[in-house]
Amino acid sequence: MAVAERTYVVSLKAKEPLRIGTKKDPLSASDNPVARVGSKLAIPGTSLKGALRAEIERYLIESNATGNAAFKPCIPGSSISPDEGKLVGKYRDSLGSCHYPCTDRKCRRDTHPICPACYLLGAMGVPGFVKVPFLFAEVPTTELYSARMDRATGTVKEGTNRPYELVPDGTVFTGQLTVLLEDPLVSWKLGQARTFSEHTGGDAWLKDTPKEPEEMVETFILARLKAIKRMGGYKSKGFGEVEITVTAK
């Protein structure tokens, strides 16, 4: 009963300077360093996963012509701003990220289904089918300065001239993404609804319309990775345009 997986090499090329910051390292000379693991520049798996989830959510919203509630992505968090509230109709009608099992005493088996985005990437209490990697590059960083101008005097405001690191355009980051196709031990197969023992709505979006693993991989994972066009901070300053390619290993 071997687990069936497929591995892909993800390559991300920075088409503009790229900056994914991290906490200040006391051993670094920079006030605002970029993310590293050891000596290697890195795009953390959390950053790539967040960008991938955003593209999956966009696809789910744009392709859900029937308004099927089970096909809508969830709304993580317990509260949202008034501006975010305007999007509620496009997302789940109730707040809260997907989770398993349901801890509400009033829960029924058809409540709290796991949305497609969480089906793929994982939800609280249940893993998903996609293991998102860290991406690494071995190139030197560049340092720039950021300063705030005092409009009254026309000079740089005292204490605001600080260096920050960036990754130069042309840098290529790579990593290996893994997709679970089937796990016979728990009877999970990509594209089919899973069976859960606790109260949950489960994978309601797949119960009546299962999908082939190839369609799931191409439509919901590979195409969505390639759709990521911007990452990191300082986008208003001309940073962050990227190009992603994915090849089967």
| Strand runs, count | 12
**Approximately how much helix is present in the residues?**
10-25%
Mean pLDDT: 83
Shape: globular
| Computed Rg | 21 Å
Portion in strands: 15-25%
In whole angstroms, the N-to-C terminal distance is: 23 Å
Low-confidence stretches: 144-150, 154-160
What structural class do helix, strand and pairing data support? alpha+beta
Largest sheet: 5 strands, antiparallel
Describe this entry's structure for a reader:
The protein has 249 residues and is α+β, with helices and mostly antiparallel strands. The protein has one domain. 19% of the residues lie in helices and 23% in strands. The chain is built from 5 helices and 12 strands. The strands form 4 sheets. Strands 1, 4, 10, 11 and 12 form a 5-stranded antiparallel beta sheet that branches. The chain has a 3-stranded antiparallel beta sheet with strand order 2-3-5. Helix 1 crosses helix 5. The longest helix has 19 residues. About 6% of the residues have low confidence.
